Amino acid sequence: MQGFGEPDRVENAMCDDDSDQEPVDIIGDSNDDTGANPHAQHGPSSSGTQQYPPHFSTLNLEALCPQADCGPTVGGSSTEFQIGQSFQNKDKAVLSVKDYSIRRGVEYRVIESDHLKYHGKCKEFGKGCTWLIRVALRARKGTWEVRRYNGPHTFLATSISSDHRQLDYHVICAKILPLVRADAAVTVKVSQQATEADYGFKPSYRKVWMAKQKAVAQIYGDWEESYVELPHWMLGVQSTMPGTVSVLKTSPVRFGGEVNESTVYFHRFFWTFPPCIEAFRHCKPLVSIDGTHLYGKYGGTLLLAIAQDGNSNILPIAFALMEGENTESWSFFLSNLRACDTTGGYPCYL
């Protein structure tokens, strides 16, 4: 079962690929990608004019971001790669190479990248620098190993940049993953500052936004996985809380003039819990209804019915996820609200 609505303009914001290409612009990043960083070549910024949130003074990113979770295994990047050095998978190998290059303020080009190998060379290879690295899969061991390495870099950057080619959203995701895990509502601005404080480069708002989407997907699952799990969640709640009312409505997939019965799309979902129905017996005989837009890859609208007790405390009594607010969706919500006997036979007013 797939989500309703059309995907947003950043369709691959949660895709885990090896491309350094970013998708089209997202809303809200037009004025957040400016400014130079005078510390781009020398690690984290120590400028007294830079303002960070108060908790940054005690935030230990290395402690919050163990290698097993975040990817790079080169650590503080004072260590050169070694022939035979192994990585658990390609993602960790690539993140390590990128981390190494970012911390040194040098860039490289990817020569080859597929399911068997990853090969990169300094962008000034043959022009005063011989740095290159080749990592390949060892099928017998199931690990990725450094098969060839010429280092360290002999090329020194002659200009200062506020961003870095290898500082893509995959690398940023690895760094901000502990922040998102601790607080899923952490802002893009805070994540952007945390990345700059660690690497000395200021990534664009768009990169950090994409990184946060990927981090959320790694922690909580992506949009498609969430919709696929919805029927299982519904059955689980009904089995553990008898009396739960849930109504799931789907739509068939149409290709041209034909209907594909093997796949359906999420359309509408109504549910309420037994405690909500029981508690309403002790509330004022008035039900208020409203809807709010959902912001994410698939949008939609959340409809809600609430009541008040004698102390004016708000009690939610029924919920619904819809494609939007229209006559049909409201009719679906209100008809199920009445049919499930939410009021317990108690007369009330909508």
UniProtKB/TrEMBL annotation:
- Residues of the region (Disordered) are 1-53
What residues does the Transposase MuDR plant domain cover? 81-145
Which spans does this entry mark as compositional bias, Basic and acidic residues?
1-11
Q: Where is the composition biased (Polar residues)?
A: 43-53
Per UniProt, what is one Pfam family of this protein? DBD_Tnp_Mut
User: MULE transposase domain location, by residue?
Assistant: 287-340
- The residues that cross the membrane are none
List compositional bias (Acidic residues) regions by residue number: 14-23
Q: Which domain of life is it from?
A: Eukaryota
Which InterPro entries has this protein been placed in? MULE_transposase_dom, Transposase_MuDR
Q: What name does UniProt use for this protein?
A: Uncharacterized protein LOC107470827
In its UniProt entry, the species of origin is given as Arachis duranensis
List the taxonomic lineage: Eukaryota, Viridiplantae, Streptophyta, Embryophyta, Tracheophyta
Q: Which gene encodes it?
A: LOC107470827
